Every structure is written in C-alpha cells, then in structure tokens.
Amino acid sequence: MGIQEIQEEIVDEFSMFDDWMQRYEYMIELGKSLPLINERYKTEDNIIKGCQSKVWVHAEMKGNKLAFTADSDAIITKGIIAILIRAFSNQTPQDIINADTQFIDEIGLKEHLSPTRANGLVSMIKQLKLYAVAYQTQLN
Hints:
mainly alpha; 6 helices; about 10% strand
C-alpha cells in the first residue's frame, strides 16, 4: 500500500470520532501498536531534536524500503510518531521524500496540539524525511 492510501486510511479513521478527546484516546491506542525501537538504538543520536518529550527514531533499509522503529517517553507523542511511522515506514526513500503531509492537517492534528507539541510534530516529519534523503543518497 502506498503512502497516499495509508494517509487516506488514517484520515478516515480519525473522521469516525466526534470530538478530540476520542481522537486523543485513539492516538494513545495507536502509540501502543508502535513498532518499538530496540533499546540499543535509544541513544542521543536517535533523539529527535525540537521535541519537548524524548522521541527516539531508528531507520534501516529492508530491501529497497525504509523501515522505522521509534519510542517516546510521553503517551501522546508516542501516538503522534506512531501515525507518522504508519504512513512512512516500509516505503521507498524516494516516496518518503516526495510524500506530502496534508493528512496531518486533514485530521486536525496540528491545531489541537500545544505549540511545543506541534513544533515536535514538524521536527518528527523533518527527521523521517532526512533519514529518507540519507538512504536515497546511499542508493545512488
């Protein structure tokens, strides 16, 4: 399944909830299903800069696709990174680089986060794309 289709799925899932309390609860549930980072990758190098809470992300190539694992010490942040990883993991670096993040606005995520969490969200997206650029460069 491509990034666009996964993003549309996420938008559909979030549209089932009437209010933001339900959406936050759903994000917390998604955080529980996050492919967890191996403890050995929970290093300073893998911490996303610009996040209020700690978020670790690890990327590795599996065939021609980039796979992400992550963790966070905050449950909402864990849900946010879970959404992003679901959209971008197991895709080619080029597809990740080219992907837009309009779905974030469609589910209303940025506007319902505190300014520091919204900045963290932007930092997470930027970091996932930076990993894709790094791996794409290695492929060329």
